[in-house]
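Weekly modeling sync, notes
Attendees: S.R. (lead), two postdocs, one rotation student

Agenda item 3: backlog of single-chain predictions. S.R. asked that every request posted to the team notebook include the full sequence so nobody has to chase files. The rotation student volunteered to paste the first one in as an example of the format we agreed on. Action items at the bottom.

Example entry:
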Amino acid sequence: QVQLVESGGGLVQPGGSLRLSCAASGKGFSSYAMTWFRQGPGKQRVTVATIYSDETTFYEDSVKGRFTMSRDNAKNTVYLQMNSLKPEDTAVYYCNRPAGIWSWGQGTQVTVSS
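Predicted structure, as returned to the notebook:
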């Protein structure tokens, strides 16, 4: 069973930056597409960004130009560099396969507030 461990969240002022990490256990990581999701207060979990095995990336419209997703297959880790953060980015951030088929990790809380 793959385990996912997200980290890097915190409290940041509007306009600030954070870099999230998600480490996955198990084999075959490099062949999988991976997605960052987020769940804001009282909202459903939604897709933020996806990176494919060829490192092609997809971003949800509200984060385009501000967020960058990357991966390090040697470390079984994906990253989310978040710049120009806005209060509406406040959420718990999770990573998983695009269909969410692995067990969810605990997520990492991102709070954007002055």
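Discussion: group reviewed the output briefly. The chain has no helices and ten strands.
Action items: rotation student to repeat for the remaining queue; S.R. to check formatting next week.
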